[in-house]
Design brief:
The protein is 64% helix and 0% strand. The chain contains 17 helices and no strands. The radius of gyration is 19 Å and the shape is globular. Bound molecules: ligand 3E9 and magnesium ion (5 copies). One magnesium ion binds next to α11.
Length: 365
Amino acid sequence: MGSGLAVPPIFSPIPPAIHPCHTDADVQTAAWAETFRIGSDELRGRLVAQTIGTFSARILPEGREEVVSLLADFILWLFGVDDGHCEEGELGHRPGDLAGELHRLLRVAQNPEAPVLLDDPLAAGLRDLRLRVDRYGTAGQAARWVDALREYFFSVVWEASHRRDGTVPDLNDYTLMRLYDGATSVVLPMLEMGYGFELQPHERDATAVRAATEMASFIITWDNDILSHHKESRATGYYLNALRVLEEHDGLSPEKALETAISQRDRVMTLYMRLTGHLSEHGSPQLRQYLRSLGHFIRGAQDWGITSVRYTTPEDPADIPSFFRDTPVDAGHEPLGIPVVSWWWDLLPRSSRAGGAAGAAPQPA
Ligand code: 3E9
Ligand code: MG
Ligand code: MG
Ligand code: MG
Ligand code: MG
Ligand code: MG
């Protein structure tokens, strides 16, 4: 049974957008999953119904169609790993063995010609994804994609040790883990490939740009924790999300944990809008395009999160909203009190730090 928690509409100041190819993307991604036989027959049957092509079409609303399709197949593949190996599979309780399997997959991503995991469907799918990453990306983007896979894999091994022991990390550790285990950073190179440009390292790795990127990961994963709480808490066995962390460590009721998680993501969203507004005033055209795409990623995850059967679970309906609100519940400008991310609040020049209503920062142009 689900939690019965009623999720109210949450704050989203970013307008929705979708690529016109979204219906085709759903069909093509389902066909790709069948071709490579991603996941068990049962898991694949669920994944192909979850409109993952539409999710990708929301992330890249004006991107190259081939990359919309690549990203859709990649997200479906990620769920093949995250659901198939980690959350529902045997390896999810054996961090050491999981680390070994993920290293073998990394070798396939890095050297698709290597004779590794030759009979494995996830490896075959990954070889195909790598070929397409080479076609639509630069050598540097392909290398960053492999590195991002490594940081995602590293975090799910950490998560697996908590699953094995039945423990729940504290909020600081959970936040650090969640910046990576939501697989948000592996999507980032495809934001560039989608529009055929390369963000220069001096901008991509600038502290404030990295902070904006991390904030996007925080918002996307907190929103997922809120919207997937019903799906996750009704499943048998271990689950981990921000609500569970707040219940276990702060002794909050489910209702209060939900309220707290909403307040946390509202404050990060408020800061994100102010910071990206500032960055896009001063950045290159490529940085502005990148920031626009981060916004589409955030909003796309929200729109997909409230509509996909993955989360609405029609057989036992989740009580989640069908629209978003345009003001935050908590517009506070103070840091969240989570040490690993407290530096996010130190980046804006003093003048932009104090002023400006929440959500009023200009949209990246
Ligand atoms: C997300 O966390 C796990 C990822 C592997 C899903 C693949 C999705 C993306 C790469 C884009 C990011 C989108 C998100 C986080 C919705 P979790 O809690 O295991 O996802 P679940 O769908 O099971 O709630
Ligand atoms: Mg997961
Ligand atoms: Mg999951
Ligand atoms: Mg699950
Ligand atoms: Mg190329
Ligand atoms: Mg989730």
